[in-house]
């Protein structure tokens, strides 16, 4: 399938398509004190498919809303290139150190530009930036429903690789999804900020390629086992 046009967007310097080493260097540049944990994966119990599925980097101190700072980055299984396909970050703020909601919103717009879609509620708000295959931002009323399929959360709470969760956007490529949680209903203070970055347009091809690879590995392994005496 044709590759989507590259869009120059990142979360604290981490971009889609980065290698594992590049991601780790970006995390180190963002916050040297973060602890990084890696979660390995395997398909159909075939050792040939073993891979580093996702990593979680987190600050040593928590926050009332969850992690004070946590980053999750997901990677695909072989034979696909082992490059980042999903990035998310969660920042929970300590009581007495909560920035203004409007300041967080303005900072997001300064970084990513005017949003494709915006939903503002009394307790939390969603901002979405999404782009088509040519790298042009999509702005229309249907964007929220078509493209907001991968809401960000606190990375330690996510239990599987995003590649296999079954969600799919419709006509959306690179997408940034930001969620701002208020301290209380209609509060001017921010309780947490969570942001994700994804392009799922190649996910089905990646899954099928991995399935074929795992199936061939199963056949190769079984072919070395002799048939019992009949």
List the helices and strands and how they pair.
Elements: H1 20-30, E1 35-43, E2 46-58, E3 62-63, E4 66-67, E5 70-74, E6 86-92, H2 101-112, E7 117-120, E8 124-130, H3 143-147, E9 175-182, E10 190-198, H4 203-223
Antiparallel strand pairs: 1-2, 2-5, 3-4, 5-6, 6-10, 7-8, 8-9, 9-10
Radius of gyration: 20 Å
Class by alpha and beta content = alpha+beta
How much of the residues is beta strand, in percent?
25-35%
Segments where pLDDT lies below 50 for 5+ residues?
none
Q: How many beta-strand runs?
A: 10
Largest pleated sheet: 8 strands, antiparallel
| Tally of helical segments | 4
Amino- and carboxy-terminal Cα gap? 47 Å
Strand order of the largest sheet: 1-2-5-6-10-9-8-7
What number is the mean pLDDT?
A: 92
Shape: globular
Helicity level, as a percent range?
10-25%
The arrangement of helices and strands along the chain is HEEEEEEHEEHEEH
Describe the structure.
The protein is built from four helices and ten strands; from the N terminus they run αββββββαββαββα. The strands form two sheets. An eight-stranded antiparallel β-sheet has the order 1-2-5-6-10-9-8-7. The model has no long low-confidence stretch (mean pLDDT 92). With 230 residues, it is α+β, with helices and mostly antiparallel strands.
Features:
single chain; 230 residues; alpha+beta; eight-stranded antiparallel beta sheet; two-stranded antiparallel sheet; 4 helices
In short:
Helices cover 21% and strands 29% of the residues. The chain is built from 4 helices and 10 strands, in the order αββββββαββαββα.
């Amino acid at each position: 399938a044709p590759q989507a046009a590259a869009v120059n967007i990142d979360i604290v310097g981490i971009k889609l398509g980065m290698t594992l080493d590049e991601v780790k260097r970006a995390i180190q540049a963002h916050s040297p004190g973060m602890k990084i944990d890696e979660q390995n994966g395997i398909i159909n119990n075939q050792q040939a498919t073993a891979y580093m599925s996702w990593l979680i980097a987190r600050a040593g101190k928590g926050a009332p809303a969850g992690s004070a700072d946590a980053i999750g980055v997901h990677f695909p299984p072989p034979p696909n290139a082992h490059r980042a396909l999903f990035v998310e970050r969660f920042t929970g703020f300590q009581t007495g150190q909560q920035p203004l909601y409007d300041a967080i919103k303005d900072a997001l717009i300064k970084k990513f530009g005017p949003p494709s879609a915006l939903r503002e509620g009394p307790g939390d708000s969603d901002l979405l930036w999404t782009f088509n295959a040519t790298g042009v931002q999509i702005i229309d009323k249907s964007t929220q429903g078509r493209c907001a399929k991968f809401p960000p959360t606190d990375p330690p709470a996510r239990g599987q690789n995003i590649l296999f969760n079954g969600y799919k956007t419709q006509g959306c490529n690179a997408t940034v999804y930001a969620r701002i949680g208020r301290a209380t209903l209609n509060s001017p203070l921010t309780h947490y900020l969570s942001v994700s970055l994804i392009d799922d347009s190649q996910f089905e091809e990646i899954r099928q390629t991995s399935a074929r690879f795992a199936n061939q590995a199963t056949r190769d392994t079984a072919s070395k086992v002799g048939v019992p005496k009949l």
